[in-house]
Design brief:
Blueprint: H1 2-9, H2 25-32, H3 44-51, H4 65-75, H5 82-98, H6 107-110, H7 116-124, H8 128-146, H9 170-188, H10 192-208, H11 214-229, H12 235-243, E1 246-247, H13 249-257, E2 283-284, H14 288-310
Antiparallel strand pairs: 1-2
Length: 318
């Protein structure tokens, strides 16, 4: 699948005659999409009408299929079929790394050298923030389904957090890793304005759900960790960034994504190959100001909580 996605993402050559598909499955998907879908507002018909530009007739490469691949893969994230969910999430991860996740529509106003295909793709990219949110929703839906334990019979040990009924299977362990990687890709290659919204969605999810199984607890904890290390906001992220020596690779990606759209066309970086000499490597080393800020944060938020626990009776049977 990776080879196929990469070939499609890199299909930017103009003037090449491409074979027509035997079946117009894109049109079928547009017709079958539910009117209640978050993507209904971004249908080809509505985007064409709003922008006075016929998107479909101006697609000259196969790159627009990636938007529909994303939609199909999202539907494949189903807890009732763990194998299918694993495959879907794995391929979502590949696409999220290949495509910068942000709305490129503004490029049409700034770049007059866009080909008709590029213009159509930029307008269609209005779907990307919605698709990113849908992907996170589907993965959190999986965690929510796994958060409830099956009713125990009289022979089971009640109250055991790691009993046989909650023990994770090999498939579930693979699923957990797949979600970790997908969240990392999503938060690494997505514009900050979008990841900020996704972070708040995760926070609301944690605050409004009860996690009764070890697997669900591990999955949501791991999801938050991946989200945090990939550039989200939060106290732990601040402490991590200020107190450790680490490579600043993600900062270069973030800086690239935050460039004004008048300075670049994201569609031209899909599946772009870079030479080794173009790779940048830098290390962050904590300075005195950083150390002072870490100390201030610990004194304000962490130490008071630890002190409050000293006088608490932690015996569960009392």
């Amino acid at each position: 699948m990776f080879e196929l996605v990469f070939i499609i993402a890199s299909d930017d050559k103009q003037g090449i005659e491409r074979r027509k598909m035997e079946k117009d499955w894109v049109t079928e998907m547009e017709k079958c999409r539910s009117p209640d879908s978050p993507l209904a507002r971004y249908s080809l018909q509505k985007l064409s009408a709003e922008n006075k530009w016929d998107l479909k007739s101006n697609f000259t490469t196969f790159r627009f299929h990636l938007f529909y691949f994303l939609e199909i893969l999202l539907a494949g994230i189903d807890i009732n079929d763990v194998s299918k969910a694993n495959i879907s999430i794995h391929n979502l991860t590949l696409i999220f790394y290949i495509m910068p996740i942000l709305d490129y529509s503004e490029c049409v106003q700034h770049h007059k050298d866009l080909t008709p295909d590029e213009k159509s793709l930029c307008l269609l990219s209005a779907r990307l923030p919605v698709l990113a949110e849908m992907a996170l929703d589907r993965m959190m839906g999986v965690i929510q389904c796994l958060a409830i334990t099956a009713p125990k019979d009289s022979s089971s040990a009640l109250g055991n957090f790691k009993d046989e009924s909650t023990k994770e299977s090999e498939e579930e362990r693979v699923l957990k890793k797949a979600i970790d990687r997908c969240v990392t890709a999503l938060f690494t290659n997505t514009k900050f304005a979008i990841t900020e919204k996704l972070s708040k969605k995760v926070l609301d999810f944690v605050k409004t759900n009860q996690f009764e199984t070890q697997l669900a607890t591990d999955m949501i904890s791991s999801l938050i960790a991946q989200m945090t290390y990939s550039g989200s906001i939060g106290l732990w992220y601040m402490l991590y960034m200020l107190s450790r020596i680490y490579p600043e690779n993600t900062r270069y990606i973030a800086d690239r994504l935050e460039r004004p759209l008048k300075d670049w066309v994201p569609i031209r970086e899909w599946g772009k190959m870079y030479d080794m000499s173009e790779a940048k490597m830098a290390w962050y080393v904590p300075g005195e100001k950083g150390k002072e800020l870490v100390e201030a944060l610990l004194k304000k938020f962490f130490f008071p909580v630890v002190e409050s626990l000293k006088n608490k009776n932690m015996d569960r049977f009392v």
